[in-house]
């Protein structure tokens, strides 16, 4: 049984995953309300809050499942990428507990957690598949051939899709996080009244670029002050522009790799228009799209516990008394298991 710990950003997530019985419990504390006043995540506040939440949340899932801390066989935590201080809280708690319990501790790549999170849902996709990873910090298309076997197909050259949502929302005077705020407002607006660019839509490769979008949003909102109606129209257009590009590139990736399964992971994967547009286009063209359950789209401990259980089958944990975090860590640096990853 693996205890999973996620503290890379503004959500404290914990979970218990049993390799025989599956996911036993998970709990999440979101700091969104605390950071909302500042319009974004304040790293120091995030670290301190992880310290306050992590052990009570762990105790909560243990008592929910009537298990004892002694039943834990291994601890998996997010080693990076993310906020250094926030990562250190999870890493040091994981190694402290692992040392006390005499069990291994394993540091994981946050995006690998997202990448494998659709495998927690039923039906789970078989390997190989194309993964569209769309979070606040990353936008990547990967070929996933197996656990630990990932090839980068394309990625953003500047802002991530979630960042484009967040920055546009900020410019429009909407709250943080911007993705859900724009999606909510877009329901009342109409796309097409404003005309925003679809960057790199026809570039032929699988890369993205979203930084021009926020400039266009800034210009649009400066041209004429936004009122309730125009703000909703602009929100609908921002969402449509991001979704159009993500759908086109994801389908191009399927075509170029000759794969038939697409997995969508990361916080932006919670977007309903994206899900609808992808599923419609993909089904028409004979592909199948898999999404993690909504609660596992954004940051959570379950994906880390699950990825930890899978990785422990492949590699040995390192010395429990030595650990580090990797605030910057490219997923492409994870070598396939056959290459002897440690
Ligand atoms: O994966 P995630 O929870 O954290 C990171 O690892 O970054 O992703 C957070 C991102 C934020 O940019 C947020 O605005 C976006 O996901 N997001 C959404 C939605 N829900 C969260 N974007 C669009 N529509 C949503 N419904
Ligand atoms: Zn994430």
Description:
The chain has 342 residues and is an alpha/beta fold. The chain folds into two domains: 2-115 and 296-334, Nucleotidyltransferase, domain 5; 125-291, ATPase, nucleotide binding domain (Nucleotidyltransferase, domain 5). The protein contains ten helices and ten strands. A hairpin with a 2-residue loop joins strand 7 and strand 8 (149-155). The longest helix has 30 residues, at 228-257. The radius of gyration is 20 Å and the shape is globular. The two termini are 21 Å apart. The model has no long low-confidence stretch (mean pLDDT 94). The structure holds 5'-O-[(R)-(carboxyoxy)(hydroxy)phosphoryl]adenosine (KG4) and zinc ion. 5'-O-[(R)-(carboxyoxy)(hydroxy)phosphoryl]adenosine is lined by residues 9, 135-137, 162, 165-166, 177-180, 183, 266-268, 270-271, 298-299.
Query: Counting H and I runs of at least 4 residues, what is the number of helices?
Result: 10
Each distinct ligand: 5'-O-[(R)-(carboxyoxy)(hydroxy)phosphoryl]adenosine, zinc ion
* Total beta strands: 10
Percentage of residues assigned to helices: 40-55%
Radius of gyration: 20 Å
Shape: globular
CATH domain class name of the largest domain = Alpha Beta
Fraction of residues in β-strands = 15-25%
């Amino acid at each position: 049984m693996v205890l999973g710990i996620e503290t890379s950003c503004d959500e404290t997530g914990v979970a218990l995953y049993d390799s025989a019985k599956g996911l036993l419990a998970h709990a999440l504390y979101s700091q969104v309300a605390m950071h909302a006043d500042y319009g974004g995540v304040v790293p120091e506040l995030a670290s301190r809050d992880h310290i306050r939440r992590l052990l009570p949340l762990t105790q909560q899932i243990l008592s929910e499942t009537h298990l004892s801390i002694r039943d834990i066989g291994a601890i998996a935590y997010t080693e990076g990428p993310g906020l250094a201080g926030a990562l250190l809280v999870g890493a040091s708690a994981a190694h402290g507990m692992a040392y006390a319990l005499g069990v291994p501790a394993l540091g994981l790549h946050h995006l690998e957690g997202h990448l494998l999170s659709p495998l927690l849902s039923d039906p789970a996709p078989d390997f190989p598949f194309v993964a569209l990873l769309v979070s606040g910090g990353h936008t990547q298309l990967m070929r996933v051939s197996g656990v630990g076997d990932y090839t980068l197909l394309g990625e953003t050259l500047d802002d991530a899709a979630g960042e484009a949502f967040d920055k546009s929302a900020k410019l429009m005077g909407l709250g943080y996080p911007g993705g859900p705020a724009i999606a909510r407002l877009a329901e009342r607006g109409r796309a097409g009244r404003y005309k925003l660019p679809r960057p790199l839509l026809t570039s032929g490769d699988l890369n993205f670029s979203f930084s021009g979008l926020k400039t266009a949003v800034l210009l649009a909102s400066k041209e004429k002050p936004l009122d309730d109606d125009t703000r909703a129209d602009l929100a609908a257009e921002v969402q449509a522009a991001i979704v159009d590009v993500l759908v086109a590139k994801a389908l191009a990736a399927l075509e170029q790799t000759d794969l038939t399964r697409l997995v969508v992971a990361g916080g932006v994967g919670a977007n309903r228009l994206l899900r609808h547009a992808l599923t419609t286009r993909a089904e028409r063209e004979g592909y199948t799209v898999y999404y993690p359950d909504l609660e596992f789209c954004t940051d959570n401990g379950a994906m880390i516990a699950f990825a930890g259980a899978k990785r422990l089958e492949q590699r040995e944990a390192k010395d429990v008394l030595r650990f580090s975090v990797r605030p910057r860590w490219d997923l492409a640096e994870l070598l396939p298991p056959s290459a002897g990853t440690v």
